[in-house]
Write a structure and sequence with these properties.
Porin, 287 residues, mainly beta, 38% strand, disordered N terminus
Length: 287
């Protein structure tokens, strides 16, 4: 899925702030059978390239698999095979491959226009043993209300970026990406206005911001296609804003990789994410 490696922001949809929105409602998913769900690729879930945002693809698989298994997400990964364009009807089919006493191993296969576009594999369930705290700590950043909004050029409106609000906690804004290499670590505070039901699906959407961190160490804008998205859940704590702390690892042979830690406003580790990206220099004519 196309990922824009720009710290950008478009004015978000004020209508979303007027009522409670959960992930299933945000995606527009409907259950159509014992193992199938559908949704339409609308402006709310697309990239500026007019096709399904990768994080929304993973999120739709998690909504379906959590409902089918009646268990919470432990871990899941999406492999992206093709695109679902704006206006397409997407079908998600679930398969509970192994149902154990504590863990269900399952997959969701997603189709659009007669083509398989992505596959989600994951594990769902709960256990008992826990450590008192995680072994990583949240970076020291300003609270979201004190961080600048990420500004997006008008031509990138009419996409998912209109429906998410994001603020730059670490890293450079778009206008400061000037050819100078920077830090591989960046961070965004993000929220869906009016969306207070934190879920694995919500975090999967924010986890797709990893690709957006590539321009920070390079010093120039890039674009690319996500090959995969992976999310590992730690805990779900109510929080209005989620801090996505991005660490870019490397870029070689046209492929980049990175990870992210996702934190609540109180400093609780919610999940980790990772991603591989087929990257190239920014080319506006490709949109």
């Amino acid at each position: 899925m196309l990922a824009l490696s720009l710290f950008l922001w478009a004015p978000f949809d004020a209508a979303l702030s007027s009522a409670f929105v959960d992930a299933r409602t945000f995606l527009g998913m409907e259950r159509t059978g014992a193992t199938t769900w559908t949704f339409e690729v609308t402006e709310r879930v697309i990239t500026p390239g007019n096709f399904l945002f990768g994080g929304c693809g993973l999120a739709s698989g998690l909504v379906a698999l959590e409902e089918a298994s009646a268990r919470p997400t432990i871990w899941a990964t999406a492999q992206y095979l093709s695109y679902a364009p704006l206006g397409a009807t997407v079908t998600v089919e679930t398969d509970l491959a192994v149902i154990g006493g504590h863990v269900t191993q399952a997959r969701a296969t997603t189709y659009a226009e007669g083509r398989e576009i992505l596959t989600v594999n994951g594990a769902f369930g709960t256990g008992e043993l826990s450590a008192a705290t995680p072994w990583v700590t949240m970076p020291e950043v300003k609270p979201p209300e004190e961080c600048p909004e990420r500004i997006m050029p008008e031509r990138f409106n009419r996409s998912i970026f209109n429906h998410l609000e994001a603020r730059i906690a670490l890293g450079r804004p778009f206008e400061q990406i000037d050819g100078t290499p920077g830090s591989p670590v960046s961070a965004l505070w993000s929220r869906v206005p009016g969306h207070f039901d934190l879920s694995a699906a919500t975090l999967a959407i924010f986890g797709d911001y990893v690709a957006g961190g590539l321009s920070q160490p390079l010093g120039f804008s890039t674009m690319g296609r996500s090959l995969d998205n992976t999310i590992r859940l730690v805990t779900l704590e109510p929080t209005e804003w989620v801090l996505t702390e991005i660490h870019m690892h490397a870029l070689a042979g046209g492929f980049a990789q990175g990870t992210a830690y996702m934190w609540s406003q109180s400093g609780t580790l919610l999940a980790t994410a990772s991603q591989s990206i087929a990257a190239r220099a920014w080319d506006p004519s490709a949109l």
